[in-house]
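Researcher: Re-running this chain for the archive, since the previous output was lost when a drive failed. Same request as before.
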Amino acid sequence: MPKVLKYLLLALAGLVALLVLAAIIVAATFNPNDYKPTLIQLVQDKTQRTLSIPGDIKLTFFPRIGADLGKVAISERQNARVFASAEHAQVAVALLPVFSKQFIIDQILVDGLVVNLHRYKDHTTNYDDLLPKGDGNAQPSTATSTPEEAHAVQFDVGGISLTNASLGLTDEAKNSTLAVSKLNLRTGPIAQGKKSNFELSAEVKGDKPSLALTVNAKSNFTLDLAQQRHVFDGFSASLKGAAADIPQLQMTLSAPSFELSPQSLKAPALALEATITQGTRSTTAKLGGALTGDLSAQRFELSNLSLEAALPNPAGGTLAISAKGKASVNLPHEAVQASLSGKLDGMRVEAQVGLTRFSPPAYSFDMALDDLDADRYMAKSTPAAKTGPTPTKASGSSAAPESPAPESPFDLSALQSLDARGTLKVASFKFANIRTSNVRLELHAANGKVNINPMTASLYGGSLAGSLSASASKTPHFAAQQTLRNINIGPLLKDALDKNPVDGKGDVTIDISTAGATVSQLKRAINGTARLALQDGAINGINLAATIRNAKAKIGMLQGQPAPQQGAASTQEKTDFTELSGSFKIANGVAHNDDLSAKTPLLRIGGNGDINLGEDRLDYTVKATVVSTLQGQGGPELQQLKGLTVPVKLSGPFNAIRWEIDFGNLVGDLVKGKVEAEVQKQVDTQKGQIEQQLKDQLKGLFGK
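Model: Regenerated structure tokens:
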């Protein structure tokens, strides 16, 4: 036995010596650079690309046979432009396994790799010739290996190290660029059926959409080259940076396992977590589901989708979202579609949302909500801070009135790039304290303009139909065309303005437009028309019948020019009407009316004047005429004034409107009426006397 061991050791030593001797002979007699022209010509013939190895090829030996190529580059097909280059490339092959028909690449080292990918306007690329040819739907062979095949040469890679690599993609079709830099990849041993691992890091920058991201990924993997089926487990990836309009983005993706083949991707359980930060506000989201993909068609499906998110509420706090559904992605068509069902801040939501274009993004949606209170999400206005105590009034001087805080201009910049089209349905909706139901609207936003048309809703016992539009131009423009039918206008005005100057049921139509960067500018720039027609209501704040009765008492005491009867509008007083109608022409924020018509049991009311929307002021004259047939309450007292028109002036700011009777015109009309009545009385008396004289003369003429 010792002799056998001795002979084995001697044989092994002899083998090693023989290998060393062979290496010395090869090193002394073999120069790999002699084959460079042949290698360059071979690449040219096979690919029509030019291979460049400017330095000398260096050999390495035991325990690895390898080649150090130094700097290397290859051109585009039939073009001198560089397609890819590397500062340093080295390949080493393990020597001993060669004798057992195992060809093991011990390691591949590449440093400073640069790859330039180009997509032209006709959608061809500078790497089309490198892509595999043939039927993309071909299935991997399931034939079993023969014993001879089982003993075929085995190809293994001991590891890959890629350092400081970069990849650039220029897309002429989309006029965009994408750059991957500082790309580092390290793998463990790569062999058929053996578990290994990899780690990757890189920086990604792009312009459409704007990207500036740091990416990291790692996973275990097992390759099945025969079946072209590869399994990954413990996969995790993260990215951090800025993307599109998101200044701060953090995202992690994990999968316990997934399966990859040339044609498909299957991931039974994916988990995505993201945090989006914009200023002081953050949005967090968790997304899960099962992913399947057709890699040849670049189409992906996400089933069993679950979403949990927390969004910032403009009014403060956060909004919680929970939903389930499914999603699909079609990369060639730049399309994403998702069907979701869940809750948004406690509201039931059914939604179909998607992207119809990636860059610039174009959104689509079809959403239905059960109860939306938009006022809960409106940012609260902050009162202007006082800069100091109110100065005391100095002797002989007057204190200047305190200037109002400057208004913040509208920020419609988000509309400049918004491209969206969709439908929104809300069962119950509240906005600006106005309550509606059965809301349905269609929105189309593009090129800095937003149109909502049609827009329908039920409100205050009636209905609304019309359209809205906005334009994010240098000076924002807005327009509204609305028809409200059979509405109870009193409750509507009370909810909207916290006051109801008019009650009644009827129709209101508006067709207005305006422009401006602040609310004040918008109010002063309103132009258009409006009309209302109401029934069975009341004008609140003044009792015209009582006012006329007061006027009657004053008229009875007239001695020269009387002091005018006046007062402040009162919410307890009102003038009932059976009909009220009027139209308005609005120019530069001033609404003019000259066809007011209202009917009450005692009065017929007309009027004309202006409503200054920009200054929140009223300058209007109501003319109340006592009807000739007085059947209403208080009618008998006004019998003396039937047919008389009493002018009442309404003026002042909206929150402090005052009224006064125009006694000058009233007395003039009254005197005129009395004179006309006295003349008529004299005419009637003279007429009677003449008639009697004529009768007497006729009697004398005929002797009777």
